[in-house]
Design a protein that fits this description.
The complex is a heterodimer of chains A (117) and B (116).
Chain A lengths: L3 E4 L2 E4 L5 E7 L5 E7 L5 E9 L2 E4 L6 E3 L9 E3 L8 E9 L8 E5 L3 E5 L1
Chain B lengths: L3 E4 L2 E5 L4 E7 L6 E7 L6 E7 L4 E4 L2 E6 L4 E6 L8 E7 L12 E2 L3 E6 L1
Parallel strand pairs in B: 2-11
Antiparallel strand pairs in B: 1-3, 3-8, 4-5, 4-9, 6-7, 7-8, 9-10, 9-11
The chains are: A mainly beta (117), B mainly beta (116).
Chain lengths: 117, 116
């Protein structure tokens, strides 16, 4: 449960403001992900990172940005270009199986609920 | 890209009965199929997963079956209890060995209500 920590739990954004959501993991996982969940809907992939200093766009990357400067951290910035940011944001991480690592499935943090003021 | 369809969107069952949720996927290269349970306002939690080299997997009251030819997989919950009430999501991905990155494509979810 304590492997992936997201903060804050609730966040409010003003018009024209950028906000950053934090995601930290202590699982030593290589891969990290950001998803967006709208009420009554499934999860949609925003960005993902396979390794430090590398990341790829997901299905709905417009209006968002990320960085991966450290293995344990993958912050998501919701920019003013994202006109409908109200949603539940979930961070996840996993570790594919390799010679020295057991395959570990994707697990999620507790999420950040973002609303517009 | 991958597309995952999930049915039904809502499911109401009497306590003790079985619940079945079905998903279909489009990409025949997908080889990993997890199921997540999400309670209201909380994070999705992995309850069971299956890989394409097996046709069925069980864990106590939960089982998942996979039909690669038809490209569909199902979640079966037996002897349902009120605490099984939640939203359940299926997902599909191409899980690569020795490669980081496991892009999950999720179904739209099934809201399960177990009536006492």
């Amino acid at each position: 449960d304590g492997g992936i920590t997201q903060s804050p739990k609730y966040l409010f954004r003003k018009e024209g403001q950028n906000v950053t959501l934090s995601c930290e993991q202590n699982l030593n996982h290589d891969a990290m992900y950001w998803y967006r969940q709208d009420p009554g809907q499934g999860l949609r992939l925003i960005y993902y990172s396979q390794i430090v200093n590398d990341f790829q766009k997901g299905d709905i990357a417009e209006g968002y940005s990320v960085s991966r400067e450290k293995k344990e951290s993958f912050p998501l910035t919701v920019t003013s270009a994202q006109k409908n940011p109200t949603a539940f944001y979930l961070c996840a991480s996993d570790q594919p199986g390799t010679g020295n690592h057991k395959d570990q499935p994707q697990h999620f943090g507790d999420g950040t609920r973002l609303s517009i003021l | 890209g991958e597309n995952v369809e999930q049915h039904p969107s809502t499911l109401s069952v009497q306590e003790g009965d079985s619940a079945v949720i079905k998903c279909t996927y489009s990409d025949s290269a997908s080889n990993y199929f997890p199921w997540y349970k999400q309670e209201l306002g909380k994070r999705p939690q992995l309850i069971i997963d299956i890989r394409s080299n097996v046709g069925e997997k069980k864990d106590q009251r939960i089982a998942v079956t996979l039909n690669k030819t038809a490209k569909h997989f199902s979640l079966h919950i037996t002897e349902t209890q009120p605490e099984d009430s939640a939203v359940y999501f299926c997902a599909a991905s191409i899980r690569l060995i020795k490669a980081a990155g496991n892009k999950l494509t999720f179904g739209g979810g099934t809201r399960v209500l177990v009536k006492p």
